[in-house]
From TrEMBL:
InterPro entries: NAD(P)-bd_dom_sf, SDR_enzymes, SDR_fam. It holds the Pfam family adh_short. It comes from Undibacterium hunanense. Signal peptide: none annotated. Gene3D superfamilies: NAD(P)-binding Rossmann-like Domain (3.40.50.720). PANTHER family: SHORT CHAIN DEHYDROGENASE, SHORT-CHAIN DEHYDROGENASE/REDUCTASE SDR. NCBIfam families: PRK06953.1 (NF005403). This is SDR family oxidoreductase.
Length: 222
């Protein structure tokens, strides 16, 4: 039975990823940081692991909890938007630290732990990036802290991809999705986004290692 690890599966895209892989017959290991979310994941048939991605001990514990797993798919989904300011409003240090810690530093802690487990299975590793990470396609400076964090995450993913030829690692733009973060006016539903992400990951070839992709499978400009 193939195994998927979903990091940040309490709600939104992460929860839907866990549910769709489960419904497709996969063994799903899903993380959340709140007791009630862990219980809900367990009730849905997932193996639930406690993980706040900004907690150093939790991240270190992930390695020994996963021990010698072979992960066919691992997805780092947990992320935060931070202040919804317009234009060049400078974030304060607390806002900067929270967004960069969650979206970038956590990836630099977690990906080195997870990559060997994905390599064991010759599997696929994805981080949830954003279309807003693309520098070349920008038309205004909206959400610049979030954008800076996701562009940095893309850089982190690229370096992870350069360190391996035994896994296929990609930065994934899920589209503009109807979740707490995307809002109810977003373009696509969470099930459409997640179905596309799963299909795109399933179709990856070794030559796709290090690519920045949309949930449709189309390649993104950096
Ligand atoms: P939501 O805000 O709906 O959910 C965010 C998820 O991240 C929750 O499961 C949340 O857990 C988890 N999370 C946040 N901080 C932490 C933390 N410190 N430790 C553990 N888990 C944490 O977001 P979406 O589902 O919309 O987004 C998922 C990913 O996709 C994010 O990385 C986001 O940046 C990206 N994305 C989303 C888009 C959209 O339109 N929705 C567009 C582009 C990218 P908890 O419930 O405990 O807070």
């Amino acid at each position: 039975m193939p195994v998927a690890l979903i990091i940040g599966a309490s709600r939104g895209i992460g929860q839907e990823l866990a549910m769709q892989y489960k419904a497709a017959g996969w063994r799903v290991i899903a993380t959340a940081r709140k007791e009630e979310d862990l219980a809900a994941l367990q009730s849905a048939g997932c193996e639930a692991l406690p993980l706040d991605v900004t907690n150093l001990n939790d991240c270190a514990g992930l390695g020994w909890r996963l021990d010698d797993e072979k992960l066919d798919v691992a997805i780092l989904n947990a992320g935060m938007f931070g202040p919804r300011t317009s234009g060049l409003t400078t974030p304060d240090q607390q806002q900067f630290d929270a967004v960069m810690h969650t979206n970038v530093l956590a990836a630099m802690r977690i990906l080195p732990i997870v990559l060997p487990l994905v390599e064991h299975a010759r599997g696929r590793l994805a981080v949830l990036s954003s279309g807003m990470a693309s520098i070349g396609e920008r038309s205004n400076p909206a959400g610049w802290l979030y954008r800076a964090s996701k562009t940095a995450l893309n850089s982190v993913l690229k370096d992870v991809s350069l360190s391996t030829d035994k896994a296929i690692c990609v930065a994934m733009d899920p589209g503009w999705v109807q979740t707490d973060m995307g809002g109810s006016g977003a373009e696509i539903t969470v099930d459409v986004s997640v179905a596309g992400i799963r299909q795109t990951l399933a179709a990856l070839k070794p030559a796709d290692n290090g690519k920045y992709l949309q949930y449709t499978g189309a390649e993104h400009g950096w």
